[in-house]
Amino acid sequence: MKIPSDNEILTPFSAAEIDSAREISRSRSVSVIAALEEAAGLPPNLFAARLAKTVHYPVASIQELHRWQGAFDLLPFAEALRMQMVLLRDDEGALRLVFGDPFNTDRLAWAENRVEALFTWTLAHHADIAAYLSRQEESLSAMAGLLPSSIGSGSIEAGLEDLSFQSVTEDASHVVRLVRSTLYDALKTGASDIHLETGPNGLAIKYRIDGVLVPIGSAGGLEVAEQVISRVKVMAELDIAERRVPQDGRFKVSARQREIDFRVSIMPSIFGEDAVLRILDKQRLADEVRGLTLDSLGFGAEDRTIIRKLANEPYGMLLVTGPTGSGKTTSLYAVISETNHGRDKVITIEDPVEYQLTGVLQIPVNEKKGLTFARGLRSILRHDPDRVMVGEIRDSETAQIAVQAALTGHLVFTTVHANNVFDVLGRFTHMEVDPYSFAAALNGIVAQRLVRLNCPHCSAPVQPTAVQLRESGLEPERVSDFVFRAGSGCGQCRGTGYRGRTAIAEIMVLNDELREMIVAREPIRALKEVARRGGTRFLRDAAIALVREGRTSLEEVNRVTFVA
Description:
With about 575 residues, the chain is an alpha/beta fold. Helix content is about 40%, strand content about 25%.
């Protein structure tokens, strides 16, 4: 290919070159600008400079686009995205309408009529404009303008509803735009759940981010609330006429070139109906599983060592406990991912299967067809497993089968809902499991919580008062080495002061003394004393250690753990 000289680069395109590009455009159904750039064979910045010299407009680089301020109050982002031109305020505050195609006269005429303020036409490479708009899309809320009282800042299956900024803003129906915008922004912010709550004044929208509900906005009027809930019902193929009983469903959308699942729960209330949408991004979960380890979950070095030792025992039971949303299943997946070397048969039974693990037989519970945890576990034991994961022990039958499996040479991983390692003992007693068998089968119990971390962008040193310290169970004279920090709230953390979470654990490893005490049904206080002497660090102590290091706030650990 002929390399153009500097003189050729600085020379405007000739009329013949432009006419030739127009001919190519008509014959190949491409834009004139694309045909001209292909024929010129210049790097993007030099092509833009030569084109600007041809049409006598100033030219802007990608660096200038990012430095200038967007004037989306005068030309909304949705329109800029559709027309591939953007209105910016330059370093002097003057308006510049940046465009990439001077041959598209229809768009130029549209912009002249659309923007009433005085501006200067400025040329930029069309790819730079697209890159700028793409970057802005990540920081803009699709619900902007739809919620006037807003307080928050593979192959795709055919027929799935497309979810993108452009599709969100182009739909004619206000209710459809509102629902799509809510889903779109939830995905962008990393929310795990969407709450649509109908109240006396209309609809309140909240996202669960890092385990905490964050108000996002509201839409006035019960009629709007009813229409939004009805739209969700239609998407989930539920009965829109039924408003008196709870309903469950699911739907899929395509976003960012992948499928996203939403599980829907509709609940009647005194003002109408509420909806909760659980977001299941299987592709993101699959990506996370590939790098899922105990280290990535944030467990301390000592805790990781103990959990790995329990996970590599030849047989027995490892119990993980905690409330809903505390990361129990994720921790067990991390354990399986680390220990699955291909020499053992690993089978799981779950409700539902949240992550897909390579080399693991995963069975979803299907109670409508009679496949319960208990029935599935019985069948698993006839399938020659070495390691078995039971998603959750909910009843006496499942508990007894799991204990027998652990006593007959299998390594069983499972979860149970309890507040700490000692409450687990009461749960199994209540489920009428023989204490001797349970104590013999049990290798260890891990109780865990997820604690929000201070936002690195806005956290600053703070000094709690003596009253706050005492209410948190801390003596003022014993916190001299603490680095107290708290976030003030910024755009990076959506004003919460926190960004990201880490796991803390309370681990009790069974020894002969503890087993004898369990069989004898000794008081919990006595068990705690023996466990502490054996090296168990309680959840409160693990949380306070994060406060000492300045990684989280005192308010957060008081929210997550009991004050001793």
